[in-house]
Every structure is written in C-alpha cells, then in structure tokens.
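USER: I would love a firmer grasp of how sequence relates to backbone shape in proteins. This is the protein in question:
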Amino acid sequence: MLQKSWKYMKNIGKSDCAVVLGVPLFRGTAAEALDVIFEMVARGEGGNVLVTMNVDFAVNAHHALSFVPRNQPLLDLMRRSPLVTADGMPILLLAKLIGTPLAERVTGADMVPDIARRAAACGARLYILGGNAGNNVSAMEILAERYPGVVFAGCETPFVKLDATAECEAENLALCGRINAARPDVLFVCLGNPKQELWSAKYAARLNAPVIIGVGGTFNFISGDVRRAPMWMQKSGLEWIYRIIQEPRRLLKRYMVGLVKFGCTAASCIFAAWLGRLFGRPSGAVWKNRGVREASDALVLDCAGLSRLDNPARLEIAARRVEADLAGKALKFEHLSRFAAFQLAAHRLSR
C-alpha cells in the first residue's frame, strides 16, 4: 500500500504539494482534492490512506521543543499518504509564512458531504467505522435525503484496539473482513487522531476500499449533535473558540496546550525558512548533484551546494526519505553544511 501511495502522489505532481513540518500537503482547492479522491475510486486499488492534517496531527507527530518525532508511525503515514490536505487555519498560516501558500483549507467536515454528493452521482459505496452509532444513523439519513441515491454499504461502531495481542489482531482482521464483504469504495474512519490514522495504516493492506480517510467527529456535525461555527469564524480561523464555548471542560485545556505546542513547533520552522531566504540561494540554482547512492545500510543523498531548504529541496528530501523507508534503509546526507542541517531539522525532515 505505501509503495503504491507514494507512486500515486508522484503521479499527481510534486508541484502540487508543499512540505510543511515534514509532510507534503496538497496545494489545490477542495474541488481538486475531491477529483483526486474519485480518481482513486475509479482506479480501484485498495488501501490508500488519506489525511486531513490539523494542529492535533502536528502536535501528535512532533515534539514542540525538540526536532525528534513524537510519533514516528504517524509522521511516516502522513509522509507516504497519497493525499494530505490542510484542515486548520494555523496550518494554512504556517504554510504561507514559510513561503508555500496553499489554495484553501480542505477539512474533513466539508469533505464528507462533498464525497457523499459525488458518490451519489457515480454510484460509489460508503462505509462508516467508529463514532457514535446514533449520530451516524442520523447523519446517514440526512445525507441520503440531501443526496438521493447515496449508498452506505455499512456502519459499525466497535471498540477498536491497537494492542499487540493475538486477540486484538484477530478482532481487527475480522473487522477488515466485514468491511471488505460490504465492498465500500470510501471508508470513513471515525476513531479520533492519531488512533484512526494508525489503525488505517496498520490494516490498509488488508482493506480493499480504494480510499480510507479518518474524519474524527464529522458525523456528529452532520447529525447536528455538535454545531459547527458560523462560516465567518471558520474562514477567520476562530472555529476553535466556538468549539471551546460548546465543550469547555473537554476542549479548553486540549486546545490551549495544543496551540502553545504548535506555536513552538512552527516558530523554529518559520525561523529556518526566513534564514534560508536571507542567507541561502534557491536550491534549483546551486544544488546540482543531488543524486542518491546506495550503501549497504542507507541511501546517501549528496547535499553539496545546498544552502536553502526551499520547497523544491524539501520535496526532494521528503521523497528520498520515503524511498529509503520503503527500502528498509536509513537516509544519510553527505556534504551537508551546518546551516542546511539546521534547516533540515527545523523543517522536521532529519528523521
């Protein structure tokens, strides 16, 4: 699955991605992202795990005060995913501040109704895993009324575990079997981040659904059990305030701590980008010997002349890191200056 996903991302074009905090983010619009999703559905190759990255993802994947990943499996999944969109205004702001602006915010909450609309038109089958059973049923009824012809092939809300036990593995494999028997084209996984992404990555090879996407509590929004912020708050990046007002006990500490951690993580990234622009030269002009040679235990990337980790350089390094991971090898750098090494670490690409 991971190999196919990375090949697919390269097929949609590296220029369509901006590497932010070590993750290639799709730079297109929500409509263009939807086209990519249904191109995957049309291809019919199972196991493509998509990600809608927000502040929670960044905080769960990275340590705020060090350049060592906090959750390497989550970071690996986002790097290898064929489509990662920016679900959060702080992510969009960070992308702009490091010189790689994105077209717009592409959220899971907006994407699910769009997928249902397109699925109704083309006959694609949808499946919901996780979430609240009552809210899921209400959401399916609302979407069926809104988009006549939409097909939900199944809805299941088991208690999903990721324990490394034979019993847990058997339960998850049985769950994959039930999902495959329903023949969904799009599998919505509603287990919350990072559990939904880690579960999807672990069992993607066992799933025949062409598109697997974690959408958290999106069906709670659709059912009306949880209200979304007014559009002006969504567009101005203030949706989190509206959520805190609704659920202060559950969300106040989580959002405050998350935003502080994200701010610390983003600050080093922004500083590195500005330093590179001030004192470095565009990678395309000076980084001419970026071939990779294969050693016994590593792929070695020649970084002679590299002084600015601009987006083309970050894309190249992100691609080589995935290539090395898929080969079961480390990625090493030779002729890497200390100046470039700092940028590499600050952009969360050194590991």
Notes: Residues 283-346 form one domain. The longest strand covers residues 48-53. Confidence is low (pLDDT under 50) at residues 1-14. The longest helix spans residues 248-279.
